[in-house]
Structures are given as C-alpha cells and as structure tokens.
UniProtKB/TrEMBL annotation:
<feature type="domain" description="HTH lacI-type">
    <location>
        <begin position="6"/>
        <end position="60"/>
    </location>
</feature>
<dbReference type="InterPro" id="IPR028082">
    <property type="entry name" value="Peripla_BP_I"/>
</dbReference>
<dbReference type="InterPro" id="IPR001761">
    <property type="entry name" value="Peripla_BP/Lac1_sug-bd_dom"/>
</dbReference>
<keyword id="KW-0238">DNA-binding</keyword>
<dbReference type="GO" id="GO:0000976">
    <property type="term" value="F:transcription cis-regulatory region binding"/>
</dbReference>
<dbReference type="InterPro" id="IPR010982">
    <property type="entry name" value="Lambda_DNA-bd_dom_sf"/>
</dbReference>
<dbReference type="Pfam" id="PF00532">
    <property type="entry name" value="Peripla_BP_1"/>
</dbReference>
<protein>
    <submittedName>
        <fullName>LacI family transcriptional regulator</fullName>
    </submittedName>
</protein>
<keyword id="KW-0804">Transcription</keyword>
<dbReference type="Pfam" id="PF00356">
    <property type="entry name" value="LacI"/>
</dbReference>
<dbReference type="GO" id="GO:0003700">
    <property type="term" value="F:DNA-binding transcription factor activity"/>
</dbReference>
<dbReference type="InterPro" id="IPR000843">
    <property type="entry name" value="HTH_LacI"/>
</dbReference>
<keyword id="KW-0805">Transcription regulation</keyword>
C-alpha cells in the first residue's frame, strides 16, 4: 500500500543518499553539491513532498501554530473573529488550527488536549455554554502556554482577554426601547453560566431602574441558547395577561427566532412588539423587518486577541499571571437601529 506521506527517507532511498544530505539539500545548505541538490529538489517535486512543519517546530522548540477554540460557528460572530485573528497571526508567521466545540464541554476538553498534542505555541479561547470547570485551561497555564480569552471569559482564570462592554451595550439597547415608548420590555437572556449573560441582564435591569419602570419577573427568562426553546418562551411572554410590548434578547439568532414566532401569532413588529438583538449578525440585515441590534467589532476582537497572545509568546520576560493582573481589552459597541423598533418613514 502506498504511503499517504512522502518523507525525506523515501527521497533518500530512491537517490541512494543519506537522509541528512536530503535534509540539507532541501534547506539550501551550502555543503551539498549543486547537482545533488538539483536531483533532490526535482524528485521532491515529482513525489509531492511536503515538509512537516510540526516536526520542524519541535526541533526548534516552537511550532508557529496557534490553536483557536470556539463554541459554535452557526452565527457570523465567531467566523468573523477567527478571520481577524488569522490576519494578525499570518502576518507574524503563525498558522492556526480551528476547533469547533459545538457548545459541548466534553468536546472542548478533548480539543484542548488535541491542541496540546500538536505542541501549539498558544491558544485563543471562547468557552462553551456548558463550561463550569476550567481545569483544562488551568492545565494550559501550568504548562506555561500563552492563553487568551475573548467574548466569554471566566472569573476563575487570570488570563489576558478581549471583550466588549456588554453592560453598557445592553443598557443603551433597552433605553432605546424605553425612549420609543415601550414599558413592558421582556428579556430572553442566555445561560447563567456566562459572564456576558449576567452583564447584559444587569444592563437591562438598570435601564428599567433609571427610568422608574418596575421589573416584572415574568418578563425575564434565561435559556440555554437552544433555538427550539425560543418558541416556548416567546409563547409564554405573549400569553401573559399583560404581554410585553418589546423584547431584548441575548443575541441575534434568538431575536430572529422570536420574530418568527411573533409573526406566526399574527402580531406586527414593531407596532405590537419591538425587538432588539445583540451582535449584528449578517442575518440581522436580511430579515424583514430589519433587526435593531448591538453591533460588536468582531473582526477587531479577533485581531486584539491575536495581538495579546503574540505579545505573551514573544515577550523576553515570562508573564506570571499568578502574581500580576493579566491585561485586558474592552472594545466599544454600536446600537444599529432598524425597522424592528422604528417604523420606516412614510408608513
């Protein structure tokens, strides 16, 4: 059976020379005779030989490979962050291995071990909704491998991280609903395990408090981001004796799923109920009516996460975050107002 991979041993055997000669010829070492180098390069091309960057990296004690762990790729948020990170990493000569955890803690642990087996030089992470135990990330820290979190962070880990001001963004989104005259504002929040869930919910509560609107516990529900459950919770809201006249959701996919249920109930958006999402997913611009949402600088989030990681990797002084506070970057958001909260002119 033909081998899937061609090695320098295969080239050496065919040319009847040593593998060390092949290796030197491939790297342009001056000790190799030009005719021998030419024969080696010609055969390497004919056999589709590819150098093994992992093996080369291990010999140098670095692989120039970065791991990126994300919880999902169904929305445009995480792919956009990845693109931003890859741009910075590639400019610095690094390649990336992307691991999609499908919002599963067990998959996250397995993928973390996989990245460690590849001897990555650092890891960029946004953890899953199920992650409550951070032992696998603490293990990375103990090994001295640079680690950066983004979007979803943890109070248990003192590591560099990149976030947006979730609290302020949620406050402004809810205040927008209040300013257009809404008083029964429901909030479909994310899992309690996520810090950004708590911050956005606090922003929602404080906006109501500032404008002296009583908080109705029936109008606040945390859910596990399983979109099939949106129908259940939106139906609950709409069947209350006093249904909401506005809805603020944890993210855009939740808002868009909610809008579908609202329309199926024969209600008008925004006349009967205004809707605000979070993230400015591509789909927020494509749905009808267009979704008012909080835009996050996803591309820049990825770039900043990569910059923080590279700073740690290239630092001449080892950063010991057990004795000092890790650096953080907080980026601004922007409220994008569309027809889900404000009628088009002329209507």
């Amino acid at each position: 059976m033909k081998s899937k991979y061609i090695s320098i041993i295969d080239i050496a055997k065919q040319l009847h020379i040593s593998k060390s000669t092949v290796s030197r010829a491939l790297t342009g070492h001056p000790s190799v005779h030009p005719e021998t180098r030419s024969r080696v390069l010609e055969l390497a091309q004919k056999l589709d030989y590819q150098r093994n960057p992992l093996a080369l990296g291990l010999a140098r004690n670095n692989t120039n490979i970065i791991g990126i762990l994300v919880p999902e790729i169904m929305s445009t948020y995480f792919p956009s962050v990845i693109i931003g990170a890859q741009e910075v990493l590639h400019e610095a000569g690094y390649n990336a291995i992307i691991c999609h955890n499908n919002e599963s803690y067990n998959a996250e642990v397995l993928n973390t071990k996989l990245l460690l087996s590849y001897h990555v030089d650092g890891i960029i992470v946004s953890h899953t909704k199920e992650t409550r135990n951070f032992d696998h990330f603490q293990m990375i820290q103990r090994r001295g491998i640079p680690l950066v979190f983004f979007n979803r962070t943890s109070d248990e880990l003192n590591v560099p991280h990149v976030v947006v001001d979730d609290y302020e963004a949620a406050f402004r989104a809810v205040e927008h609903l209040i300013k257009i005259g809404r008083r029964r504002i429901a909030h479909l929040a994310g899992p309690d395990s996520l810090i950004n869930t708590k911050l956005r919910q606090q922003g929602y509560l404080d906006a109501l408090k500032k404008h002296k609107i009583p908080v109705d516990p029936d109008l606040v529900i945390s859910y596990d981001l399983t979109l099939e459950k949106v129908r259940i919770y939106i139906k609950h809201f709409l069947e209350l004796p006093q249904p909401p006249d506005a809805l603020f959701t944890i993210n855009d996919p939740t808002a868009i799923a909610a809008m579908e249920v609202i329309r199926q109930k024969g209600l008008s958006i925004p006349d009967d109920i205004a809707v605000v999402g979070f993230s400015n997913d591509l789909s927020a611009r494509l749905v009808s009516p267009g979704l008012t949402t909080v835009a996050q600088p996803t591309f820049e989030i990825g770039r900043e996460a990569a910059r923080l990681l590279l700073q740690d990797i290239t630092s001449t002084v080892k950063n010991d975050y057990s004795v000092k506070k890790a650096p953080s970057v907080m980026l601004k958001t922007k409220l994008i107002i569309r027809e889900s909260t404000v009628m088009k002119q002329g209507k």
